[in-house]
Amino acid sequence: MSSGAARASRPYTRGDEGPRMSNANVSASASLRSERDDAKGARSPQTDSKFSGTAHKRSASGNPRPTARAIEGRRYEERRVTERTYVSRIERVPPASPGKQQRQSGPTEKKVPELRRQKSAEWKQSDREQGSEPSAAGWMPEVTLLPHSSAPLASRVSIPPLASTVPQAPQPIPLIELSLEAQEAAMVEDLLFVFMGFEGQYIRFAKGYDPNEERDRLSGPTFKILPGLDPSLHDLTTSMLKMATYYAALEAFVDVQSRADFGLVNHALCASIRKFLQDYLIMIAQLETQFLTNDTFTVHVLNIHTISTSHLMLQLYSLAQELLKRNALLDDESEEEGDDSDDDYDKVIERLTDGGELLPGSMTAKKICKGGVVLGLVTKRLESMSGDPAARALLTSLLREASRPYMVMLNEWLHRGAINDPHSEFLVKEQKSIRRERLEQDYTDEYWERRYTIRDHDVPPQLEAVKDKVLLAGKYLNVVRECGGVDVSQVVTRVPTSFDDSRFLENVNNAYAHANESLMQLLLTTHALPARLRSMKHYFFLDPSDYFSYFLELGSSELRKPVKSVNTTKLQSLLDLVLRQPGSVVSLDPFKEDVKVEMNEITLIKSLQRVVNITGIEQGESLQPISNQTVEGDKNAVGFTSLQLDYAVPFPVSLVISRKTVWRYQALFRYLLSLRHLESQLSSTWQTQTRGISWAHKGPNQALEIWKRRAWTLRARMLVFVQQLLYFCTSEVIEPNWTRFMARLDTKEDGQDGTRPATRTVDELMQDHVDFLDTCLKECMLTNSKLLRIHSKLMQTCTIFAAYTNWLTRELERLDPDLSAENKPSTMTADQWKRFQAAKASSQRTAQNQDAAALVISPDDAEARVRNLADIIRKWEGNFSRHLQILLDALNHYAATETVVLLSLCARLSTANQGTEYAGLRTEDDTA
């Protein structure tokens, strides 16, 4: 390749054209000398023409080539004669065609005046040009080194100037003046230059190609052949020029795609292409050797040697052009994606929300085709060219080499749980702003769901089917590594290094199984997840309710206050005292320190309706609270309605018991607490009505006695309603679902039935936990807005009735003539009368010093008050019965369409209406 390297520097300076033109003149002189020496032989003009025509090539392609020593001697002799002639006679010979010299039949003396005329004309022309264009004499291009770029292997040599920009460039002999064999020799020589990216004498870059423009270099140059070439050579030469276009474009592609921001996969792809181009240049050097030593080397032979290489270069060129269009370095993709990128504000906001950075070049950065996308393009082209053995072998080699850095990242993620992805090209994306340290105060699902996510558009086709396993395997090992539960620092050997390795899928499956087993062992054994779940069941589901009843009794005075006046610290101290009470079930709980008391000013019904009324939310997130929305609290809320528990969960148990699951526990707790509190109120009402003197005494007023029986019946129906609802929620909803959930949690690895996989995964465990809570919420009627409204009406009716019991008792005392008299009635014992007088005196002291005369009611006024009480109790009965019947109808409907377990509740609640009708429908007066 020494000759090719020497000629490769030819276009840099004008002075390089001199030796080439001198060689042509030397060949012409040798031709003239041969005519004189062989004149005696009377050689025919055809023979002379043939010989002179092949002088452009160092030897005729059809004649035997002399030995190397003879050639050197002849060249030395020719040069010596030429120098003597030029120096002594004209000092400089302008370029002349060998054909013209041979057509001159006169002696050498006749040529001298012609040469002198050419020299004189040249001097005159040179004088005019020096006067008009002084810059032409100073045109001295130099080779310079370009500045360092982010592509370390890119060429730093400045681009040589085009031949068209050289001033006063000597022109080669026109092709039309050369014979067919000379033209063929000239084409072979130029093609060898063009194949290496340089212009030849007769093959130049087409007009419009600028090597200083990156887009032109990436698209590849087009060439033009000077006119006069024989048609038999023109078509073949033109078809071979495509390979020169491919080479120049691939060389520019390698320089551009090797920049740092294109990622490791592109770098590996460019290294593989660069290796192919090196082999290509070696082939060109071998072809040049054949051209210099083989007499039978023609354009057709050159085409035969390069046709297979040209086909492979076409495959590389097509792949490179597709990648460049994806990267918006060519025009096709930039116009299509320009509008989308300018208005994509949602992605910008999402990137900022997720903790990303908004860089000035972020819009163009997202257009870079790298990582899995590059591997996908190579794979797609490999599939489409699978019928071509040569192309398949080439693309398979490219895919193998390009996937090596990707496999390094994949193995690092699968076997260590770490991401080493400086160019953001791996299929798993890491949000570094979400760290474990933040979970100690706010253990949310972000760490698990948003710290590591999949780049859906950057997944290679080879990993599409197992991308979830890849994500989970790394996430599991990441958690294990941060907790120090299992040693993951061991170097894993014998891992696949490319996508075409037969152990590729086996490696993913084995890593996933190992990571899952490690994390399951860490959760179930080291951090005692089942014990923590049982602890939460005790506290939030009031499983052993004795301790909590004691807590409510101790804190009743504080819990009756408005929610803003409640002393939470005092309640926390009372709860700690109750939990440490000897003999209690929870006193032995090792996690009782994690239970905290807090107040929620938003009522349970409002909190649930905020969730169930959300529209347009993604599937599986309908029960997630929205904490960023402000909701006005209930002004009448007290400590009993706002009390809720919180639970501190350490990492990594917080992955299973996350904030979303704790919110579900709190919703169920508040619902069960409201039922327990209402049951306690109605039980107190029962005690008042059973043991109270005013309720137990039988007076002479029959209307009042009927009113008391109706109040007893209504209180009993309400108590049955609340007790049946509480029993249903605890015994028929929570307990069976809890049993099934713990059975799945305790499933051993050796599956007993062959219908389901034996190995449980952490994600399945997390999903089972969420499903358990969601099922409990749904079957407890807390996820249906209609059932929530009806339930709220019934609970409100029962609460008001229980709260007005004391007022009803005072009204009863004032309306009963026996109780309002000063003397003891005959139907009451002395002890009962004494206790009644003491209670009456106490109620009078709390009546704000009311006038004693106001307590005396006339018989007419007493009758009107009895009728008023009857109307009040009738309204309560009608309100409760109507809403209860609406609830029963709704339960029947949803039991038939959604949740069949509600049918059991419907049967239980129907007992609260057995033997009764709507109070307002019994008579026409009531209806009116």
TrEMBL record:
Amino acid composition bias (Polar residues), ranges on this chain: 22-32
Basic and acidic residues bias locations: 71-83, 108-131
Span of domain Gamma tubulin complex component C-terminal: 529-911
Disordered, as annotated region: 1-139
One GO MF term: microtubule minus-end binding
An example Gene Ontology biological process: mitotic cell cycle
Keyword DNA repair annotated: no
Keyword Cytoplasm attached: yes
Keywords: Cytoplasm, Cytoskeleton, Microtubule
Listed InterPro entries: GCP, GCP_C, GCP_C_sf, GCP_N
Pfam families, sorted: GCP_C_terminal (PF04130), GCP_N_terminal (PF17681)
A GO CC term attached to the entry: microtubule
Family: Belongs to the TUBGCP family.
Family annotation (PANTHER family): GAMMA TUBULIN COMPLEX PROTEIN, GAMMA-TUBULIN COMPLEX COMPONENT 2
Protein name: Spindle pole body component
Organism for this UniProt entry: Drechmeria coniospora
